[in-house]
Design a protein that fits this description.
Blueprint lengths: L17 E4 L8 H8 L5 E8 L6 E9 L2 H11 L13 E6 L15 E3 L6
Antiparallel strand pairs: 1-3, 1-4, 2-3, 4-5
């Protein structure tokens, strides 16, 4: 088993391709996330996680890149840097997929993608 975090998107054969992005402002949407990484030319998909009842952002989302190399480059380059036009900073980590166990408290657990734990330096 590899020591690289997996995310289920390994069809390119080079490891994970999806990053978790946290501390998103309420007004940031998928198009905004896409625009942040457009210069890389490597973004395949963006997804903001929203509250099922209110529809408002939960403050985090995911960015899928075309390759592990592109995702790693963005993680190394952008993480901790200021987000242009805002007073916020990029907060990035590898996304990790839950096993669908829905552990812990709270409603609606189980399945899906979660942000990684500690920072990777």
């Amino acid at each position: 088993m590899s020591s690289t975090p997996g995310n289920g998107n390994n069809d390119k054969g080079a490891g994970p391709r999806t990053l978790w992005m946290g501390d998103l402002a309420y007004w940031m949407d998928e198009n905004f996330l896409m625009s942040l990484y457009a210069s890389t030319g490597e973004v395949l998909n963006t997804k903001i996680i929203r509250n099922k009842v209110t529809g408002y952002s939960e403050g985090y989302g995911f960015v899928e890149f075309a390759s592990n190399f592109a995702a790693q480059n963005v993680l190394n380059t952008y993480n901790g840097a200021p987000i242009a036009g805002t007073d916020q900073f990029f907060k990035l980590n590898w996304a990790s997929y839950s096993g669908g166990q829905g552990g812990g408290g709270g409603a609606g657990g189980g399945g899906g993608v979660k942000g990684g734990g500690g920072a990777q330096e």
